[in-house]
TrEMBL record:
UniProt-recorded name of the protein: Gfo/Idh/MocA family protein
InterPro entries: Gfo/Idh/MocA-like_OxRdtase_N, Gfo/Idh/MocA_Oxidoreductases, GFO_IDH_MocA-like_dom, NAD(P)-bd_dom_sf
Residue runs in coiled coils: none
Signal peptide from the UniProt entry: none
Gene3D superfamilies xrefs: Dihydrodipicolinate Reductase, domain 2 (3.30.360.10), NAD(P)-binding Rossmann-like Domain (3.40.50.720)
PANTHER family: BILIVERDIN REDUCTASE A (PTHR43377:SF1)
Length: 319
């Protein structure tokens, strides 16, 4: 088992602590949080070992799980990697693309593994259909959230939209050609609502909307490709695949058939893939353990985390 320690014991950090403590792939060594009074309460309530410093934790583990504010990601990661420790780092990977690139080089130099916490890659609604998403040409994503003061220190693009940016980059096998965006600050000092249009070199277009001041929560993406439409509801954990195929010689009398202006007929088929319930955060942590043990590429590599941040920054720069 890999010894793991968590840096940061806030809302998400406590979830990571609980799951690492339950996992059969890790041995939880403990955690560190700079808020001493708060950290002592967490240690007392849950029985986790509290380290005296970041350095103390790093010296006692194989894997450092970084769940600190984004501002601290780079310094914590560098300290861990320079000691030869593997790093799991929450999204966004770092504050700047330059930091991310520097971290990638350092990880490679020290021969360790790194994974970024883009948890929606492990959402069962997405994993149920991701292999069926092939060369999408139009993508539409909506990620709307009710207001929560936590996270408003960064633009909504880095807080929410980056989830969908990563998902889209994982299925579109083409380079980004152009980005157009707009953002509006309503409550925070940074944009609370944003819309972005990403154009890829292969002709695919993705339209993304994110808001953190909505009246209801929504996390949906739709993928359009030749002869197929795939819908993913990340919040409700539901997927639907609608396919169009050539009409058979003797179609069922209840078959749904479309005919275009040229007289070509297509039959529509509806599929609702079986969704396997899971804990996405536990899955991302445990697949990272497998990547370390097998010396294989993590599912969300530092390179992919860097590219998601780069595109997010392009969107912000276009406001």
């Amino acid at each position: 088992m890999l010894k793991a320690g968590v840096l940061g014991a806030g809302h998400l950090g406590k979830i990571h602590l609980r799951l690492l403590n339950q996992s059969n792939k890790y041995e939880l060594a403990g955690f560190f949080d700079p808020d001493k009074d708060y950290a002592l309460k967490v240690a007392e309530e849950f029985g986790y070992h509290l380290f005296d410093s970041v350095e103390d934790l790093i010296n006692h583990v194989d894997v450092v799980d970084i769940v600190t504010p984004t501002l601290n990601h780079f310094d914590c990661a560098v300290a861990a990697v320079e000691k030869g420790k593997h790093i799991f780092i929450e999204k966004p990977i770092t504050k700047t693309v330059e930091e991310a690139q520097s971290l990638r080089d350092l990880v490679k130099k020290n021969g360790v593994r790194g994974q970024v916490g883009h948890v929606e890659r492990f959402n069962p609604a997405f994993t149920a259909v991701k292999d069926q998403i092939s060369e999408p040409m139009f993508i539409e994503s909506h990620r709307l959230a009710e207001f929560n003061p936590r996270g408003t220190d960064v633009p909504v693009v880095l807080d929410l939209m980056i989830h969908d940016i990563d998902i889209i980059l994982s299925v579109v096998k083409s380079k980004v050609k152009a980005v157009h965006a707009s953002g509006v600050s309503v409550i925070s000092d940074t944009p609370d609502i944003a819309n972005a249009r990403i154009e890829f070199e292969n002709g695919c277009v993705a339209n993304l909307t994110a808001s953190r001041i909505s009246l209801k929560n929504m996390r949906k993406s739709r993928f359009f490709q030749k002869d197929a439409y795939i819908s993913v509801d990340f919040l409700e954990k539901k997927s639907e695949v609608v396919r169009m195929k050539d009409v058979p010689e003797n179609p069922d009398e209840y078959a749904m058939i479309l005919q275009n202006a040229e007289g070509v007929k297509k039959q529509i088929y509806f599929e609702n893939p079986k969704i396997e319930n899971n804990n996405a955060i536990l899955d991302e942590l445990e697949t990272f353990a497998v990547a370390i043990q097998n010396n294989t590429k993590p599912i969300v590599s530092l390179e992919e985390g860097t590219e998601a941040l780069r595109v997010a920054q392009l969107i912000i720069d276009n406001f």
